[in-house]
Structures are given as C-alpha cells and as structure tokens.
Design a protein that fits this description.
With 303 residues, the chain is mainly α. The protein has 14 helices and 4 strands. The chain has helices spanning 10-24, 28-45, 53-62, 68-87, 114-128, 135-150, 154-158, 188-198, 218-231, 241-254, 259-266, 271-274, 282-292, 294-302, and strands at residues 171-175, 181-185, 210-211, 214-215. The chain has a two-stranded antiparallel sheet with strand order 1-2. The chain has a two-stranded antiparallel sheet with strand order 3-4. The radius of gyration is 22 Å and the shape is globular.
Length: 303
C-alpha cells in the first residue's frame, strides 16, 4: 500500500518529480521510486519542508539495516529534493548535505558524442536556413545553442530575461543555485541565433522565451529537445536539456579546458561535482601529455 506524504509536502514533491522528468529526463521507474521514498520520509518526519539535518540523520540511521542500494537511492532522493528546494528559493539551505554519502560510485552522466551534437545542429540548420523559417524553429535554434554553447541549466535558460543576451556582449550574468552569481560565456553563434529569434519576441515581453503569461516551461523545453533528437536519429531516452549541459562540459574538458574554469561556468559550488566530467578519452590525455609536457621540448633540444 502506498504511503501518503505529509499534506504540506505533496505539492513540493509533485514539483520535484516534474523537474526530474523535464530537466533531467529521469526514467519512469526512477520517478516512481523517488516519489515513494520521499512520501515515506515525509510521513515519518511529518513534513520534509521544515525538517533539519538532525531529523534527516535520524531517518538515515533508521535505514541502516536496509540493502546498500536501497539506502543509496533514498539518500539520493533526499539530497536531490533539497537541492531542488534550495535552487527554487523554497529553502535557504540544504539540510541533506551533511548526510553520509553511500560508497557506491557515482554513475557517469549521459553524454552525446561530438558527431551526435553535429547531427542535432544539421537538423536545425535544415529548418532554419529556409527563405522564411518558422519562428518556432528559430526559437529552438536559440535554445539549443545556449544549452550546448553555454551549459545553462534548463531552469536558467527558460527564465532568461528579454535582454539577457546582448548582441555586443560575449557573456551573461546568471544567478544560480543558492543565489550565487556567475559569468557565462555566450558564443558568437548563440548570439546570432538569439538575435534572429528576438525579432519575433514582443518588445514588452519580460522573458526571452515567453509563453502565455509566463515563460517557456521546462517540460515544453524537454519535449522540444527530444523532438529534435528524433529528427537527428538519436534515441529519446538519450537526450534531454540536461544531457546537452553534460555534453557542453565533457566536450570542453576533452578539448583541454581547465577544470576550475569549467566549475565556474557550470556554477558548481564544489569542484567535486565538476570532476564527474573527467571521464574524457584516454587517448586525448596521452596526446595532451605528448604535445604539451615540458619534457617534450627538452627531448627536442637534446636531439
């Protein structure tokens, strides 16, 4: 029998599960498991929204005799739930941050190859280089250019103000998780794409990507990205806005980007979060050492 959450948590859990599906492309089974874990925790604590770290630690202690995989999933559900509340401004802190992390290795993020990303842009170019492209296609081009070219989170992207991307400024300033501001580079390609789309945005609009009385939703963005993937021959389960953010990070790192610079661009508070992207091609690392290590010059002078 399913456990009902504390009444005050029901809406928050619904919003969190919606975010998992829309922004991170979580599988249906993952959504169901996280919902069940959060509902049970909410019921036991009589509310998650106001729970503190001590209460969460007591709950984690109660789970100690469960299978390690079950404990890891439950702790992951709590951490991600509170990260969501913090990022949405619904809590000023993350009380789950102090929970002891399971020893299991963190899974690598889903990733696209450079060739697959090229296929996405080829599909976009086929639609946007017509004599009279549809405004919706120009909008999708701007969205994907910013996702892959700047590594924006889905929430950050859809809620960009109308004038956030300036045609003569190769960066924008974002306020991300925890209210932290960061400087995000915007490529020439992305600024051109935004300029084309901006011509179709009402001058009095508050948002760069308006929809109805608000801005484009994360769910709609998720649907649009997956639809583009279908045109490019990429399986739907392999593509989401979050996957494009992962691709941005991994491809930059593979190209020799500095890990600290990448941390700044992604808005990670902890360098450990950024280190997940160090699963780069070993051949690239070998090539990097062979070409750039100081011993290379010493060897040349010796010969």
């Amino acid at each position: 029998m399913a456990v009902a959450p504390h009444p005050g948590d029901r809406h928050l859990i619904d919003r969190f599960i919606e975010m998992l599906a829309a922004e991170q492309g979580a599988a249906r089974n993952t959504q169901l498991a996280y919902r069940a874990d959060l509902n049970a925790a909410s019921s036991l604590l009589r509310g998650l929204e106001q729970a503190d770290g001590a209460a969460l630690q007591r709950l984690a202690d109660d789970w100690a005799e469960l299978a390690a995989s079950s404990v890891a999933r439950k702790l992951s559900a709590l951490r991600r739930f509170y990260e969501f509340l913090e990022s949405e401004g619904l809590r000023p802190d993350n009380p789950a941050g102090a929970l002891v992390r399971p020893t299991a290795r963190r899974p690598l993020p889903k990733i696209l190859s450079v060739e697959e990303v090229e296929r996405l842009f080829e599909a976009l170019e086929e639609r946007t280089q017509k004599p009279h492209p549809l405004p919706t296609d120009l909008r999708l081009l701007a969205l994907v250019e910013l996702l892959y070219g700047s590594g924006l989170r889905a929430t950050e992207l859809v809620s960009l103000p109308r004038q956030a991307v300036h045609p003569d400024r190769p960066f924008l300033i974002l306020k991300g998780k925890g209210g932290r501001e960061r400087l995000v580079p915007v490529s020439d390609r992305a600024r051109r794409a935004v300029a084309l789309w901006s011509a179709h945005v009402p001058r009095d609009a508050l948002w760069l990507f308006p929809s109805g009385k608000a801005h484009l939703s994360r769910i709609r963005l998720f649907q649009m990205v997956r639809g583009l993937g279908a045109l490019a021959g990429i399986a739907p389960e392999r593509l989401s806005p979050h996957v494009l953010r992962h691709a941005f990070a991994t491809h930059l790192l593979s190209g020799g980007a500095d890990l600290r610079a990448l941390q700044t661009m992604l808005g990670h508070a902890d360098i450990g979060t950024t280190q997940i992207y160090t699963h780069v091609d070993a051949r690239h690392l070998v090539e990097l050492v062979n070409q750039r290590h100081p011993l290379v010059d010493l060897k040349r002078r010796a010969s």
